[in-house]
Amino acid sequence: MAGTAGRLWALAGATLTMARGDLMTGGTGVVRIPVPTFLVEHAGGLVLLDTGLAPAAAGDPAGHYPDLGELLLIDYPPERTVEAGLSALGFRCSDVTHVVLSHGHFDHTGGLGLFAHARLYRGAGELQHVREHANDPVRAYRIDDFAGLETADWIEFHDDLDVFGDGAVRILHAPGHTPGNAALLVKLPTRSILLTADTVHLRQAWHDEVAMPMDPDHPRARASIRRLKEIAAATGAEVWIPHDPDDWRGFGAPGCYR
User: Which pLDDT tens digit goes with each residue over 206-221?
Assistant: First the structure.
Protein backbone atom coordinates (compact mmCIF):
# COMPACT_ATOMS: atom_id res chain seq x y z
CA MET A 1 0.00 0.00 0.00
CA ALA A 2 1.43 3.36 -1.04
CA GLY A 3 0.84 6.52 0.94
CA THR A 4 2.24 9.95 1.52
CA ALA A 5 2.90 12.19 4.47
CA GLY A 6 1.05 15.50 4.55
CA ARG A 7 3.78 18.01 5.36
CA LEU A 8 7.41 18.21 6.44
CA TRP A 9 8.81 21.06 8.49
CA ALA A 10 12.46 21.96 9.04
CA LEU A 11 12.95 23.49 12.49
CA ALA A 12 15.95 25.73 13.12
CA GLY A 13 18.12 24.78 16.07
CA ALA A 14 21.56 25.67 17.34
CA THR A 15 24.50 26.35 15.05
CA LEU A 16 28.00 24.96 15.52
CA THR A 17 31.17 26.55 14.20
CA MET A 18 33.91 23.98 13.75
CA ALA A 19 36.71 22.74 11.53
CA ARG A 20 35.68 21.15 8.24
CA GLY A 21 38.38 18.55 8.87
CA ASP A 22 36.41 17.35 11.89
CA LEU A 23 33.32 16.87 9.73
CA MET A 24 34.85 15.11 6.73
CA THR A 25 38.15 13.45 6.02
CA GLY A 26 40.35 15.87 4.08
CA GLY A 27 38.25 18.93 4.86
CA THR A 28 39.93 22.31 5.32
CA GLY A 29 38.90 25.60 6.84
CA VAL A 30 36.06 26.41 9.22
CA VAL A 31 32.30 26.11 8.69
CA ARG A 32 29.17 27.13 10.61
CA ILE A 33 26.64 24.33 10.44
CA PRO A 34 22.94 24.20 11.36
CA VAL A 35 21.64 21.65 13.86
CA PRO A 36 18.00 21.26 12.79
CA THR A 37 15.20 18.91 13.66
CA PHE A 38 12.44 17.82 11.28
CA LEU A 39 8.74 17.26 11.88
CA VAL A 40 6.62 15.07 9.60
CA GLU A 41 2.83 15.20 9.57
CA HIS A 42 1.15 11.89 8.73
CA ALA A 43 -2.38 10.60 9.24
CA GLY A 44 -0.89 8.15 11.73
CA GLY A 45 0.79 10.81 13.85
CA LEU A 46 3.53 13.43 14.08
CA VAL A 47 7.07 12.14 13.55
CA LEU A 48 10.07 14.06 14.84
CA LEU A 49 13.54 13.36 13.46
CA ASP A 50 16.06 14.09 16.24
CA THR A 51 15.67 16.49 19.17
CA GLY A 52 18.58 18.93 18.96
CA LEU A 53 20.69 20.15 21.85
CA ALA A 54 19.54 20.00 25.46
CA PRO A 55 16.96 22.70 26.23
CA ALA A 56 18.88 23.49 29.42
CA ALA A 57 21.83 24.59 27.28
CA ALA A 58 19.87 27.33 25.50
CA GLY A 59 21.26 30.76 26.28
CA ASP A 60 24.41 29.33 27.88
CA PRO A 61 25.66 26.44 25.74
CA ALA A 62 29.27 26.88 26.87
CA GLY A 63 28.17 26.47 30.46
CA HIS A 64 26.20 23.31 29.69
CA TYR A 65 28.84 21.80 27.38
CA PRO A 66 32.12 23.17 28.85
CA ASP A 67 34.19 20.25 27.50
CA LEU A 68 33.37 21.11 23.88
CA GLY A 69 34.85 24.60 23.88
CA GLU A 70 38.08 23.61 22.15
CA LEU A 71 36.25 21.74 19.39
CA LEU A 72 33.43 24.05 18.40
CA LEU A 73 31.57 27.28 19.05
CA ILE A 74 27.88 26.83 19.88
CA ASP A 75 25.21 29.46 19.22
CA TYR A 76 21.95 28.39 20.83
CA PRO A 77 19.33 31.05 21.63
CA PRO A 78 16.27 29.97 23.67
CA GLU A 79 13.91 30.41 20.70
CA ARG A 80 15.68 27.58 18.89
CA THR A 81 15.00 24.70 21.26
CA VAL A 82 12.90 21.90 19.79
CA GLU A 83 10.06 22.85 22.14
CA ALA A 84 10.10 26.45 20.90
CA GLY A 85 10.23 25.28 17.29
CA LEU A 86 7.19 23.08 17.73
CA SER A 87 5.34 25.85 19.56
CA ALA A 88 5.96 28.24 16.65
CA LEU A 89 4.12 25.75 14.41
CA GLY A 90 1.21 25.48 16.83
CA PHE A 91 2.23 22.14 18.34
CA ARG A 92 3.22 20.98 21.78
CA CYS A 93 5.78 18.30 22.59
CA SER A 94 2.89 16.12 23.73
CA ASP A 95 1.48 16.20 20.18
CA VAL A 96 4.51 14.30 18.84
CA THR A 97 3.69 10.59 18.61
CA HIS A 98 6.92 9.18 17.10
CA VAL A 99 10.56 10.24 17.54
CA VAL A 100 13.27 8.85 15.27
CA LEU A 101 16.74 9.14 16.75
CA SER A 102 19.15 9.20 13.83
CA HIS A 103 22.02 8.39 16.22
CA GLY A 104 23.26 9.06 19.72
CA HIS A 105 25.42 12.21 19.49
CA PHE A 106 24.66 15.10 21.82
CA ASP A 107 23.33 17.45 19.14
CA HIS A 108 20.58 14.94 18.31
CA THR A 109 19.64 13.60 21.75
CA GLY A 110 19.37 16.73 23.92
CA GLY A 111 15.58 16.98 23.88
CA LEU A 112 14.73 13.27 24.17
CA GLY A 113 13.39 13.71 27.69
CA LEU A 114 10.57 15.90 26.34
CA PHE A 115 9.14 12.93 24.44
CA ALA A 116 8.97 10.11 26.98
CA HIS A 117 5.31 9.68 26.00
CA ALA A 118 6.09 8.98 22.33
CA ARG A 119 7.19 5.87 20.48
CA LEU A 120 10.96 6.17 20.20
CA TYR A 121 13.11 4.58 17.49
CA ARG A 122 16.82 3.85 17.72
CA GLY A 123 19.20 1.73 15.69
CA ALA A 124 20.47 -1.59 17.02
CA GLY A 125 23.48 -1.18 19.29
CA GLU A 126 23.17 2.60 19.48
CA LEU A 127 22.40 2.97 23.18
CA GLN A 128 25.13 0.50 24.11
CA HIS A 129 27.55 2.50 21.97
CA VAL A 130 26.55 5.70 23.79
CA ARG A 131 27.15 4.02 27.15
CA GLU A 132 30.55 2.67 26.11
CA HIS A 133 31.77 6.02 24.80
CA ALA A 134 30.10 8.45 27.18
CA ASN A 135 33.49 9.48 28.58
CA ASP A 136 35.42 9.76 25.32
CA PRO A 137 37.65 12.87 25.12
CA VAL A 138 35.56 14.16 22.20
CA ARG A 139 32.48 13.82 24.45
CA ALA A 140 29.97 13.63 21.63
CA TYR A 141 27.71 11.44 23.77
CA ARG A 142 25.54 12.38 26.73
CA ILE A 143 24.09 9.35 28.49
CA ASP A 144 22.15 11.76 30.71
CA ASP A 145 19.99 12.64 27.68
CA PHE A 146 18.50 9.14 27.98
CA ALA A 147 17.71 9.44 31.70
CA GLY A 148 14.15 8.51 32.62
CA LEU A 149 13.54 6.77 29.30
CA GLU A 150 14.31 3.24 30.42
CA THR A 151 10.63 2.28 30.37
CA ALA A 152 9.69 4.33 27.31
CA ASP A 153 8.23 2.69 24.20
CA TRP A 154 11.49 2.04 22.37
CA ILE A 155 11.60 0.33 18.98
CA GLU A 156 15.09 -0.89 18.11
CA PHE A 157 15.56 -1.44 14.38
CA HIS A 158 18.19 -3.63 12.76
CA ASP A 159 17.30 -2.78 9.17
CA ASP A 160 15.12 -0.32 7.27
CA LEU A 161 11.76 0.31 8.90
CA ASP A 162 8.52 1.62 7.39
CA VAL A 163 7.04 3.63 10.27
CA PHE A 164 3.39 3.53 9.16
CA GLY A 165 3.52 0.60 6.75
CA ASP A 166 2.54 2.68 3.71
CA GLY A 167 5.94 3.82 2.41
CA ALA A 168 5.43 7.44 3.44
CA VAL A 169 8.00 7.60 6.24
CA ARG A 170 10.88 5.15 6.02
CA ILE A 171 13.79 4.85 8.43
CA LEU A 172 16.89 3.83 6.48
CA HIS A 173 19.52 1.94 8.45
CA ALA A 174 22.87 3.53 7.55
CA PRO A 175 25.56 2.36 9.99
CA GLY A 176 29.15 3.57 10.00
CA HIS A 177 28.99 6.99 11.58
CA THR A 178 27.69 5.06 14.59
CA PRO A 179 26.48 1.44 14.80
CA GLY A 180 22.81 2.43 14.64
CA ASN A 181 23.01 5.53 12.45
CA ALA A 182 19.94 6.12 10.29
CA ALA A 183 18.48 8.43 7.65
CA LEU A 184 14.82 9.22 6.92
CA LEU A 185 13.00 9.07 3.59
CA VAL A 186 9.77 11.08 3.50
CA LYS A 187 7.31 10.78 0.62
CA LEU A 188 5.20 13.93 0.29
CA PRO A 189 2.31 14.66 -2.11
CA THR A 190 4.53 16.47 -4.63
CA ARG A 191 8.08 15.37 -3.81
CA SER A 192 10.17 12.97 -1.79
CA ILE A 193 12.99 14.12 0.49
CA LEU A 194 15.79 11.97 1.85
CA LEU A 195 17.19 13.40 5.07
CA THR A 196 20.67 11.91 5.39
CA ALA A 197 21.12 12.91 9.04
CA ASP A 198 24.80 12.40 9.89
CA THR A 199 25.53 9.71 7.33
CA VAL A 200 27.39 12.69 5.90
CA HIS A 201 27.75 16.21 7.29
CA LEU A 202 28.66 18.21 4.19
CA ARG A 203 27.66 18.04 0.52
CA GLN A 204 31.28 17.52 -0.50
CA ALA A 205 31.47 14.41 1.68
CA TRP A 206 28.37 13.10 -0.09
CA HIS A 207 29.93 13.76 -3.48
CA ASP A 208 33.32 12.29 -2.56
CA GLU A 209 31.90 9.47 -0.42
CA VAL A 210 34.22 10.14 2.50
CA ALA A 211 33.62 9.47 6.17
CA MET A 212 33.92 11.72 9.18
CA PRO A 213 37.35 11.20 10.79
CA MET A 214 35.81 10.10 14.12
CA ASP A 215 33.51 7.53 12.48
CA PRO A 216 34.24 4.14 14.08
CA ASP A 217 33.75 2.21 10.82
CA HIS A 218 34.87 4.08 7.69
CA PRO A 219 34.14 1.24 5.21
CA ARG A 220 30.56 0.89 6.49
CA ALA A 221 30.15 4.67 6.52
CA ARG A 222 31.16 4.89 2.85
CA ALA A 223 28.94 1.92 1.98
CA SER A 224 26.01 3.66 3.65
CA ILE A 225 26.61 6.81 1.62
CA ARG A 226 26.60 4.78 -1.59
CA ARG A 227 23.43 2.95 -0.53
CA LEU A 228 21.59 6.20 0.21
CA LYS A 229 22.63 7.47 -3.22
CA GLU A 230 21.12 4.36 -4.80
CA ILE A 231 17.88 4.81 -2.85
CA ALA A 232 17.66 8.48 -3.80
CA ALA A 233 18.15 7.61 -7.46
CA ALA A 234 15.60 4.79 -7.35
CA THR A 235 12.92 6.89 -5.63
CA GLY A 236 13.65 10.25 -7.27
CA ALA A 237 14.13 11.76 -3.82
CA GLU A 238 15.80 15.10 -3.23
CA VAL A 239 18.77 14.69 -0.90
CA TRP A 240 19.01 17.02 2.08
CA ILE A 241 22.16 16.95 4.20
CA PRO A 242 20.86 18.59 7.39
CA HIS A 243 24.19 19.88 8.70
CA ASP A 244 25.28 21.42 5.39
CA PRO A 245 24.71 25.21 5.46
CA ASP A 246 24.32 25.41 1.68
CA ASP A 247 21.63 22.72 1.76
CA TRP A 248 19.87 24.63 4.53
CA ARG A 249 19.78 27.75 2.36
CA GLY A 250 19.06 25.82 -0.83
CA PHE A 251 15.94 24.24 0.62
CA GLY A 252 14.82 27.63 1.92
CA ALA A 253 14.82 26.42 5.52
CA PRO A 254 13.35 26.77 8.00
CA GLY A 255 10.09 26.10 6.25
CA CYS A 256 7.26 23.78 5.30
CA TYR A 257 7.44 21.26 2.45
CA ARG A 258 4.62 19.38 0.73
Answer: 999 999 999 999 999 9
